Amino acid sequence: MTATRVLLADDEHPVRGALAALLALEDDLVVAAEAATGPEALAMARAHCPDAAVLDRRMPGADGVSVATSRRVGLPGCRIMIVSGHGRPGHLKRALEAGVRAFAPKTVGARRPAGIIRTVHAGNRYVDPELAAGAISSGGPPLIVREAEVPEPAADGAPVAEAAERASLPQGTVRNHLSAAASKLGAENRHAAVRLPRQ
Predict the structure, then answer these.
(1) pTM for the full model?
(2) Is residue 56 located within the same domain as residue 151?
(3) Dihedral sign computed on CA atoms, order 38, 43, 46, 48
(4) Mean pLDDT in each 10-residue stretch from start to end of the chain (199 residues)?
(5) Is there a single domain that holds both residue 63 and residue 103?
């Protein structure tokens, strides 16, 4: 039986090392490569062609969901599992839309990661029940009309002052709408909040 080749990407070395040690105990799984940043994860994925990847949702350079989206273009056969400390609705939604097959907390039990990797490698999905419940129960209201419209004038990277002029709104209002949109969408910053409504 050929072992499933796994890429591990997490900027916290102790966390990544502990997971690598756990997976080393499994006969059917092998850690093919490790990475500490988003760009490094992409480079390792392309160099080692893993069957599955366990990506931290938050990494320097590019988050796990961005890596998953980029990976679809250059490495479509790799199944992705995202680990996260939070189950906010926007995070989970973005991950699933990016083709991620599993979403689990970083605190997942010692024997669970191997089972989840096997699940996604077989073509199935896994979403941690507690994260899913938390995301659903804290769903919050959708974007109000202005929160959905304001990102558009800023879509080309325009500063707040210019976006405010285009939207015919005070700068403070635009800043507040962008902040609210970022929070509701689970975006890392206002630039991501500009992109997500378009997607």
Answers:
(1) 0.66
(2) no
(3) negative
(4) 90 90 92 94 90 91 85 70 75 80 78 87 85 62 48 59 68 70 61 55
(5) yes
